[in-house]
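SEQUENCE AND FOLD
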Amino acid sequence: MSLVTSRSGRLRSARPLRPAQFRRLPTRPSPWPDGSQVLLRQVRAEHTRRLLPVTVLYDDGQRFVFRVQAGSTWLDAVRPGADRAHGRRGSRRLTTTAGSEYNLTYVMDRGRSYAVAMSTDPVSGELVKWHVRAQSLIRRRSWGFDAVERELDLELPPTGGTTCWKDQRLLASLVAEGAVTPTTASRLKREARHAVGRLADADQRAALVNWTRPPADPLNVHHVMDRLAPISGVPTSGGPEPTGAVATGTAVPGPAASPVLVADDLTPRRVYVASGRARRPVSVAEGCPFCPGGREVPADFETTAFPNRWPPIATGRCEVLVHSPDHAQDFATMSRGEARRVVDLWARRGEALAGLDDVRCVLVFENRGAAAGATVEHPHSQIFALSVLPPLLGPAQEPGPSAPPCPACAEPDAALLVEERDGWRAAVPPAPPAPYTVRLTAPRHVTSLAELDPAERDGLATALVGTVRRLDRLFHEPMPYQLWTSRSAHGSPGGHVSVTVAGLLSRPGRPRILGAAELATGLYFTPVGPAETAAALRATDPHSQLREVRR
């Protein structure tokens, strides 16, 4: 689907969409992984009628299940002066539309002319109603799916029973216009009645309800479009508008291909190759995208999460987590309660991503400052759901009766201990990867942040605030750091949960950079001994005033 700019400055279809068998758009032969965020394009009378951002729940080539999250925005083809387009001919524009108040889970089977959809409450997950919609999947695309939308919908209550037919008059008008043949109309009604009959069976209803998933954050159709661009057939735009037609503007180039994990031919090294990610925007000249009402976040939030539009790993496996609406507020300036909200966000999103079928490890990390690799100043972290268990993130020993005791449960070397408070130990690792590295270890042996009780989460929040403040006071300037914590998933062996904060300055104004020997060997070299680091950090007062240093 290509869009061009009309004289009015709005985007419109360059030409009517040709029938599916004649369109020259790229197809995708392989299934979409569960959790992929893609586009569902609904085609009616050879025109695009709706473009929805969907999350793929299942795709095996025969059955397709995807969800439209409550609150997501999509594009509708709307005639000027009308609320919606319903198959009537005339000039239409693709217009941003507020989504449904319910979660919609679609189940489509290849070869059938209808889809069964379930509306569920986004908070309680309770089934609200059933939909039988006359639409069929044409094919899988390199950016999502194409589906033919026909003018016949039915609604049923949660337990089946009385059917409410919709759009029968419109279907009859399309038959009268010759857009739909009487034979096709009769077949659609017959197959719809068959679907209603299946829903009368309690076992059939229960099997379909099993496809629903816990609530997730809504999707913005423009964000999904931008991330998938410039794949052929996907429209691009300069940004979302609350109302009116899609705005024109300079589109940001997107990744040229989905990220892939590649094994090196000479070493055991494995690298995620994300072609085009280097072209992601780093300028915030139009305003911070993470400040309230910015391009990526809602107007009102305390913490928020959203899919990374430039994912370095597979689609649907990478999210951005914004810590605060305040552009200048990071762990060094947060209260314990504010830091606790970040801990809760990490735990919540980590638990959700760990539930995906093919995930073996979930990594949460933060890069603070340009020297650490941050491209946006607003404090935020990211979360990756990995399909492999990286060697450095797995436990040193497989669990079992012959395994040695957990080293994180043992008392640390007193020379390496920085502080112990509320059960959390802040200590320098014996082999630190960066000059001023601190590891925060949980009071008891749990494998994920989600397993921490409220008091333990409060303790972690306090430890994070205190550790970052100590690092900032070492050289009296904000310490660029790299922070990470991980958890295993789906049977992968888990370790004692901890959070590592790696301060990157070796001395004032001099950030640590990996040398050739480190890249070549995987061995790290540090100019500051761990005991020396611990002593320096113990000597700092996390509550003292941070004085300005001029250079």
Notes: The longest strand covers residues 127-141. Residues 274 and 312 are 5 Å apart (CA to CA). Residues 1-25, 82-90, 230-256 have pLDDT under 50 and may be disordered. The chain has eight helices and 25 strands.
